[in-house]
Amino acid sequence: MKIGKQTYFLDNKVYIQSAYSLAGPYEAKGNFREYFDSVMEDDEWKCKSHEMAEIQMQRYVIGECLSRVNVNPMDCDVIMGGDLINQIVPTSFSARDFRTPFMGLYNACATFGEALAIGSTLVNGDFDKVVCCTSSHYATAERQYRYPLELGTQPTPESQWTVTGSGAVLLSKKQGNYPMVTGYTVGRVLDFGLTDPNNMGGAMAPAASNTIVTHFRDTGRSPDYYDMIITGDLGRFGRETLHYLCKKEGYVLDNLNDCGSLVYSDEQKPGQGGSGAGCCSLVFASYLYKKLIDKSLKRILFVPTGAMLSKDSALQGESIPGIAHAVVIERED
Amino acid sequence: MEDKQYMDYIHTHAQKSSHVTTLVWAFLVGGLICCVGQAFGDIFKVLLPNWEQSKISALVSMTMIFLGSFLTAIGVYDKIGIHAGGGSIVPITGFANSVVSPAMEFNKEGIVLGMMAKMFVIAGPIIVAGTVSSVVTGFIYWIVELIR
Asked: Which of A74-88, B10-24, B39-53 is least confident?
């Protein structure tokens, strides 16, 4: 059911039946260490390359997410997801090991939000079980967007650290003590002309603000309707900027949080925080999902954010467009 | 909010690197690397008293390049670079780092099309700039000599 300009409410109940998270060794020392389902002992994870490790991560996370609730991958209607690497190889390659139909998605770091929106719509329709999974890996993203790992470059204060991790969720019609996806606001691609690829929080904040404000205007809800509004990977500076932008539009977000700013502890000091397609899915499948299950969170607005740049577009002087999708996740009670 | 206004907000609010810390670190680490080079030069002079100065210099460069490459290979040089910035990029050890790090990174795509092809992705521009400027300088030198 369409509400307002860009928001949709689901008529049927779409449950998040299962979630599974896998964190890299550096993430495992962060703030959510006790929430992760499993932790990689090193970045390569006994694979030939970091790309192979990322494939293995997704394969593992999807497999564990399903086996946790005794669902055979062949009984799932579709696996959908994405990552940051060329031609979304980690996702597509991990899907070749499951005899399940597959759809690859790309919305940069907002891919998980896109997957939840599309997946929940499918389950709202005729699909019964849909797996949504995204991942990112520090080493593969560095190679994709920046420099070789061992090059002695100095990070700028605005830069973020790509999260090594992956999270998968199973959306299904099966009832139980599960949180539900009840609606979403699809975001627009917004570009305010920022060209610094090291300041992605600043590039994504306008898109996040636009999506969140549109969500409130469409639904008539106010920010305190939610226990938590949590964005994907804006980082500390991006989060402040988002707070400022929403305030200018008349919405004060006191319950605003950001997966990227939270994922690392203060001692780790990775610039502005974490980023990457796996950042929000990792935090969602670990911390947020567990909080939703034990009822300490009942209603959240989950807003994965993405910066749609490539290394070439940045070199050609193009500015960085951002995108954000807002997904409403709540409990029945 | 207009784009222009937003850019102004970003520029005034974004965190900037502290010039003082950056410069002091670069000065200290860069200076230390040069001191190590000088020390090797002095040691080689004592050990090899019959060698000319130009040979000693070449030997010092080779030693420093080896050290830069070695520290890159064992994963230490990038950690120095995080604090030192230009201090570890500008000396010859930084050049070694910029060649060895892509060689290691792209080794996974094979020896020829991976390592060999991509070895100079970072150092390439420096080599091109160096070669072109030396050709230009040589040409100017040649003209000046002709006129004299």
From this structure: B10-24
CA angle B1, B2, B8 (to 5 degrees): 100
Q: Which of A103, A87, A139 is nearest to A276 (CA)?
A: A139
Report yes or no for ipTM above 0.90.
Answer: no
Fold of A11-172: Peroxisomal Thiolase; Chain A, domain 1 (3.40.47)
Structure tokens at A79: 């696996």
> From the candidates B15, B17, B109, B118, which should be mutated to test the interface with A, based on the most A CB atoms within 10 A?
B15
Interacting residues of A149 by C-beta distance below 8 A, sequence separation 6+: A139, A142, A143, B78, B101, B104, B105
**So where are chain B's domains?**
20-122
CB A17 within 8 A of CB A23: no
Q: Is A53 in contact with A44 (CB distance < 8 Å)? A: yes
As to burial, measured by CB atoms within 10 angstroms (0-12 exposed, 13-18 middle, 19+ buried), residue A69 is: middle
Residues of A in contact with B17 (CB under 8 A): 156-157
Amino acid at B96: A
What's the whole-number mean pLDDT along residues B73-98? Answer: 92
Distance CA(A182)–CA(A13), nearest Å, equals 7
Q: How far apart are CA A45 and CA A61, in angstroms?
A: 14
* Superfamily name and number for A180-330: Stage V sporulation protein AD (3.40.47.40)
Contact B10 A150 (CB under 8 A): no
In this predicted structure, the answer to whether residue B2 has a pLDDT above a threshold of 80 is no
Nearest to B97 by CA among B125, B111, B128, B76: B76
Say whether A58 sits in a helix, a strand or coil. Answer: helix
- Stated pTM of the model: 0.92
Residues of B in contact with A248 (CB under 8 A): 1
Query: How far is Cα of residue A333 from the mean position of the Cα atoms in its chain?
Result: 25
Measured CA to CA, the distance from residue A193 to residue A89 in angstroms comes to: 30
Residue B67 per-residue DSSP state = H
CA atoms within 13 A on the CB side of A201: 34
